[in-house]
Every structure is written in structure tokens, then in C-alpha cells.
Amino acid sequence: MSWLVTGGAGYIGAHVVRALVDGGERVAVYDDLSTGSAERVPGGVPLVVGSVLDGAALEDAFRDHAVTGVVHIAAKKQVGESVERPLHYYRENVTGLQTLLEAMTSAGVDRLVFSSSAAVYGMPDVDLVTEDTPCLPMSPYGETKLIGEWLIGAAARAHGLRAASLRYFNVAGAAAPELSDSGVFNLIPMVFERLAAGEAPRVFGDDYATPDGTCVRDYIHVRDIASAHLAAARRLGDAPEGTSLVLNIGRGEGSSVREMVDRILKVADRQDLAPQVTERRPGDPARVVASADRAREELGWSARHGLDDMIDSAWQGWCHRHG
Ligand code: WQD
């Protein structure tokens, strides 16, 4: 098959592109370079600079690169920003996906792997979140991902699309320093930033109903996220018309903020900076950990990389970017 990866010049997209290429798939990247960078696209992989809001440009890309399937990663992904700019998030993430689905339908491209998020669950009150846990997103960002899944489900039923929506849990790490996340919006890079400023890392609340009082998440290496896309792409190859899978992509293991911060301080060799407990951050659920059973059953996929690998590689990336 021949895949168009939207958002392929971004942090997660660049890893997915490499996994597909290494898996022997043909790949072209479609990215508006608003947050991605052309340097992340490997040599030999064509880059089309365009917006997912431009249906004609998408159809041109399908034709020019003989596309048979799309991996749709391009999206806005900052939860806080989505609260400030909900209409922007709805346009980019929902109208963008709708435009893509219309272009795919009119061009006869009928395979889609979609980047969804654990943000669709909101504040789940369960030990392990399964795909059947009720979805009650707490932010416009999470809403756009859930609506995206609905759009895809409807297109699968009506137009025979074969699709997999992958609900990523907390993504971290890098396959190489130059592929690391350049944003500072999540726990690991936020701690690095504090350390770089010579400040103690912050723990947002230690009075949650969890073993050490700090929030528990399911951190997963971006290389595992990437291999899940390759597995999903292959799974869709011979799937019947109308197949629409929704799969958690996590490790199925919880780690607390305190545990993460301790590990990060060790890797960065800054154990002198004792973590500082501050107020809770509004909207944070106490615990969000995946059941990864369905992805294993449907894709034969499971995560291979652990926390040390995630934190070490994220640190190498930080040092690469900040000297
Ligand atoms: C993790 C934990 C913080 C920084 C978000 C989105 C989710 C997905 C991943 C997009 C929380 C705590 C953080 C700090 C801290 N995004 N923390 N001190 O909120 O689980 O998930 O990013 O696709 O949809 O909601 O991730 O990395 O921001 O926070 O104590 O300096 O670390 O309170 O408990 P989160 P995060």
C-alpha cells in the first residue's frame, strides 16, 4: 500500500513515517509545517506542504503519490490552548478530518489510521480504562478527538471506509535526539525546563486518592506508538469494508508523577533539586491507565519500551535541542 501521513513532519508523525518505511510501506508526508519541520522528514520520502482544510490539495496529493491509505496525525493537541481557542481546535481537528474524509471518499481512498487520544475519556473512575469505558471529554481538544471517531465510524458504515482510531495515552521519548518533541507541554519536558532554569520541578498536587497521592498515568514510548500504526496499517490491508476499530494504545502500567519526577532527576543527574508540591492543576484526573488488551488481540501489538528508555531518550533530545 501507499500511505499519506498527515502531520508526518511533527514529533509523533516523524516516528510513524520511519516505522512505516522500515516496515516496507510506501509513504508520502502531508504537513502544513505550522508546528512540524521539514528536517524531520527522511530523505526519499516526498513532502507535500498543505493544509488538511484544503480538499483539492489533498486530492492532488492522493493522485500524485498513488495513495491507497491515510494515516491522519495532523491536529492541534494542546489541551489548555483548546480551552482558550475552541473554535480554532474544532476547525483544525473536526473540519480538517471532515475535509479529509470527503477527499478520500471522492478519490476512492478507503483506509484510514486516525490519531485519537485518551483525552476522550475525561475523568475515568476505573482502574484500567477499556475502550468501552464511557467517554466524557473534559476539554474541547478531547471533544474534537471523540467527534473525529464518530465521523470515522459514520463514514465506515455509509461508505465502506476501513479505519482504526488509536487512543494514545501519555506519549514520551524519541527514537533519535533530532526527532524529539520540541514542545514543552507535558510532564517530562516541563521538568527538564525547570531543571535547565535551576529550579525545582513541580508536582501538581499530592492529595489525590492514589498510592503516593500524585496523579497516575500510562506513559508510552513514541516508538511503541509508531509500531502500533504500522500494525494498524497492516491490519486494515485485508479488513472487510466498514471495519472501524477503536483501540487504546498504552502500556497498561501506571506511573505516578512522583515516581516520574524522581526518575527524571536521576537521569538528568539533578537529585539536588527536590520536587516542590504545588496546587492541583484544574481538570487533572487522578488516574488514567489503559487496558491494552484489545490492541493486542486486534493487532498483535504490545508496547516494548519502558520508562528508562522514554526518559533517557527524551533527555538526549532535550540536550540536543538546548546544547
Ligand atoms: C501528566 C501529569 C500533571 C507537569 C495531556 C493531555 C492528553 C495527552 C497527553 C494529547 C499530570 C502532572 C505535569 C508538571 C506535574 N495529550 N504534572 N508537574 O495531562 O496526563 O495528558 O497530555 O494528545 O490528552 O490531557 O499529561 O504530561 O500534562 O501531565 O505534576 O510540571 O503530570 O498534573 O498529573 P496529561 P501531562
From TrEMBL:
Keywords: Carbohydrate metabolism, Isomerase, NAD. It comes from the Bacteria. Residues 3-250 form the NAD-dependent epimerase/dehydratase domain. Belongs to the NAD(P)-dependent epimerase/dehydratase family. InterPro entries: Epimerase_deHydtase, NAD(P)-bd_dom_sf, UDP_G4E. Its cofactor is NAD(+). Pathway: Carbohydrate metabolism; galactose metabolism. Its EC number is 5.1.3.2. It is an enzyme of class 5 (isomerase). This is UDP-glucose 4-epimerase. It catalyses: UDP-alpha-D-glucose = UDP-alpha-D-galactose.
